[in-house]
Amino acid sequence: MTSILVTRAWPKEAEDRLQAEGLGDVTLRDPDTPMSHDEWMAAAQTYDVIMPTVSDKIPAGFYPAAKGKVRVMANYGVGFNHIDIDAARDNGIAVTNTPEVLTDCTADLAMGLMLAAARRIGEGERETRAGKWIGWRPTHMIGKKVSGATLGIIGFGRIGQAMARRAHYGFGMKVVFQDAWAVPDDIKAANGNATQLGSMQEVAANCDFLSLHCPGGADTYKMINASVFDAMRPGAILVNSARGDVVDEDALFAALDSGHLAAAGLDVYHNEPALDPRFLQYENLVLAPHLGSATDGTRAAMGHRAIDNLKAFLAGDAPQDLVT
Ligand code: DGY
Can you name a GO cellular component term (predicted)? Predict the structure, then answer.
């Protein structure tokens, strides 16, 4: 019988369906904590299917050890930078992910971070809760106007496009973006009448808010570095709901220290959840704990999508979200 491991707790609806599908012997791992190195190495010899997720730290030795045993890693999540895709392929392990179902919620969260950072909502809440608010006054907690400003987007895939629509149609923002692929005119027109620029630096120089929507991993590692921060307009704001390793955090802190960067709204970090303690020193950072897809319907839909992919794979069909 096919043995299936789910590495972290899913919404009950999705777990129930996985068990009811009769795809194999399902292990819902308990406790809901990251698997240790030794657990991963044991899993390599034990399971035919592993259903991992973004917070898993998979040791390099897992892939060769899993060769001939693990057939597929049906990832719960769209991002798969926690999986070594080349090593999986080299060791005969298929990988799937769960795009589309979390696009709207992630773009919603990015809008929320942008608004919160621009309008100092976190600072304001802290002041109010601390009983330090002394009342309305014309100069109190002045932020940055979002409506009508220019949004720069790095990565114009599904989530970047959803962000562009929200910003343009909801807030009257002009949208500029950078992406490695030449985006066809009809897609630009349908997604906030956005303008593609040639480089990240060019986008940074031409926007008031810069929002990241590219994948993480080796290709984008520390891509938002000093040269991008330096190119930004003074007083610009950064939003990151993509992956922490896309941003050079030393360069981020330097831009905040100089005042060139007015604020940032962040959902993701290097080495999360072990944040660099410097993050906590800045009032002008809005810090969310990787909540992009965290709504009830979306988290269940991610499970359903992972199950759909696994069902197709086990039936010998091509899963709709085959990564490798
Ligand atoms: C993903 O699916 O990659 C997200 O980061 C989880 O919210």
Answer: cytosol
Which of 233, 304, 292, 274 is CA-nearest to residue 74?
304
> Predicted ipTM?
0.97
**Domains of the chain, start order:** 3-101+296-314 (3.40.50.720), 103-287 (3.40.50.720)
Q: How far apart are CA 36 and CA 57, in angstroms?
A: 8
Identify whether 100 is a catalytic site residue: no
Residue list, ligand 1 pocket, CB within 6 Å: 54, 77-79, 102, 292-293
Both tokens assigned to 214: 């590219």
Residues of the chain with pLDDT under 50: none
Q: Please tell me the total number of residues recorded for the chain in this structure.
A: 324
**Cis amide leading into 31 (omega within 30):** yes
Report how far ligand 1's centroid is from the alpha carbon of 302 (Å): 9
User: pLDDT at position 193, please?
Assistant: 98
Q: In what order do the strands lie in the sheet with 72-74?
A: 25-28, 3-6, 49-51, 72-74, 94-96
Assess whether 126 carries a catalytic annotation: no
